[in-house]
Design brief:
The protein has about 400 residues and is of the alpha/beta class. It folds into two domains: about 180 residues, Periplasmic binding protein-like II (D-Maltodextrin-Binding Protein, domain 2); about 190 residues, D-Maltodextrin-Binding Protein, domain 2. It has 19 helices and 13 strands. Strands 2-1-3-12-6 form a five-stranded mixed sheet, sandwiched between helices. Helix 2 packs antiparallel against helix 16, helix 10 crosses helix 18 and helix 18 packs antiparallel against helix 19. It starts with a helix and ends in a 5-residue tail after the last helix. The relative contact order is 0.17. The structure holds beta-D-galactopyranose. Beta-D-galactopyranose binds next to loops. Beta-D-galactopyranose (GAL) binds next to loops. Pfam families: SBP_bac_1. Part of a binding-protein-dependent transport system for a sugar. Belongs to the bacterial solute-binding protein 1 family.
Length: about 400
């Protein structure tokens, strides 16, 4: 009798423990970048009040630090229950190839996601028809940000091409603006490079580059490096010490006129800095990229062998849901990955991005994982660093070509 009671008590404990549950999610969205994710966590807690959520973050823009920590956890056999990774080659070329991720086909089926996510996006997160992560958003990388009142005071407008940018840069320098453009640490320089290259080559050649049809050593690409060098001559000299948020701050306070950054900057301006679109901050497609939308998407996957699989699946379901995406994206500066999102919840910037997403030519971002395998990406930062100090376009192009061959992008 006593034994039966003990057994019943033990079972009761087990049941309540599993009903209580835990969930660890892993990302680089902390501090200034945290509010959108926190809104999603709040929704999760409301739905699953007994589950304790460990919102583990490793700060550092573009995931530079988080990806390194994730690697040690994945290889050490202690994966988080779900983690952030960019849609595309970043996840597919690493943890998917290594057999560490769960195939999410049945989840996509049960949630009807094949029908609500754009076909090309589903293709980007899939191999052989199997999806590996759930996209929570679509970000645009090729945006030039400015402070409308400051531009007016200086008597300039957002330049439409890179040659026009260089002229505006000279005008501003003559007016005493020492650094018309602000850039930050290495990845933000790669981010700028991407916009300069697409704005110089055109979107079709950008696609050719990643399809192995255009070599980095082609004179067009070499010329793109040279333009990038001239653009960098308009930038601040203390770039390597600045985070993307600190660089954005310099646009708002009028130290610099322009910054090329993804539209998480819109989230930062509107959500964190409480600035109004069009008056507190302004935007335009990066020079030369009008009618082109350079996309990237944040997504979360399910590593094999997680401790809290059910809770993680519930997390993924929420991320992919309409309610989840429309809670997250208006704060983040991105648009929903879903095609049925409620645009009335988005500000003027979000609405304009949603319109461009529908009408523009879509190409993928290099820096944010969409077009090249991580083996290329992780080494490309050094090419940019070296270029910025040497300004040797031919050498940088040759080094990039070598990386492309090694990564299997080019022959
Ligand atoms: C990107 C990411 C964005 C934002 C940004 C800055 O790679 O996709 O959501 O977090 O980095 O950290």
């Amino acid at each position: 009798m006593k034994k039966a009671l003990l057994l019943a008590a033990a079972l009761a404990v087990t049941t309540s423990a599993s009903a209580a549950g835990k969930l660890e999610i892993f990302s680089w969205w902390s501090g200034d970048e945290g509010p959108a994710l926190e809104a999603l966590v709040k929704l999760y807690k409301a739905k699953y009040p007994a589950v304790t959520v460990d919102n583990a973050t490793v700060s550092g823009g573009a995931g530079t630090n988080a990806k390194a920590v994730l690697k040690t956890r994945m290889l050490g056999g202690t994966p988080p229950d779900s983690f952030q990774a960019h849609a595309g080659q970043e996840l597919i070329g690493t943890w998917v190839v290594a057999g560490r991720m769960e195939d999410l086909s049945s989840l996509f089926k049960s949630e009807g996601w094949d029908k609500v996510f754009p076909k090309d996006l589903v293709k980007l997160i899939s191999t052989n028809g199997k999806p590996w992560s759930v996209p929570v958003n679509v970000h645009r990388s090729n945006v030039m940000w400015y402070n409308p009142a400051k531009l007016k005071a200086w008597g300039v407008t957002a330049p439409k091409t890179w040659p026009e940018f260089l002229k505006t840069c000279n005008t501003l320098k003559a007016k005493g603006v020492a650094a018309p453009l602000v850039v930050g640490e290495n990845w933000t320089q790669q981010h700028l490079w991407e916009s300069v290259m697409i704005g110089t080559l055109g979107s079709a050649n950008w696609e050719n580059l990643w399809a192995g049809k255009l070599k980095f050593t082609d004179p067009k690409v070499v010329a793109g490096f040279t333009t990038f060098g001239k653009v960098m001559d308009c930038a601040n000299k203390d770039a390597s010490g600045l985070s993307w948020q600190q660089a954005s701050d310099r646009v708002i306070d009028g130290t610099s006129a322009f910054n090329v950054m993804g539209d998480w900057a819109a989230g930062y301006f509107a959500t964190t800095k409480k600035l109004a679109p069009n008056t507190g901050f302004g935007w335009a497609p990066a020079p030369g990229t009008t009618k082109t939308f350079v996309m990237l998407a944040d997504s979360f996957g399910l590593p094999k062998g997680t401790k809290n699989r059910t809770e993680a699946i519930n997390w993924l379901k929420l991320m992919g849901s309409k309610a989840g995406q429309d809670a997250f994206n208006p704060l983040k500066g991105s648009i929903a990955a879903r095609t049925d999102s409620d645009l009335s919840k988005y500000n003027t910037y979000g609405k304009s991005a949603a319109a461009d997403w529908k009408s523009n030519k879509i190409v993928g971002s290099l820096v944010h994982g969409a077009v090249a395998p991580e083996s290329f990406m992780s080494a490309f930062g050094a090419v940019i660093d070296q270029y910025v100090s040497s300004r040797n376009s031919a050498a940088a192009a040759a080094a990039a070509q070598q990386l492309a061959v090694r990564a299997g992008i080019s022959k």
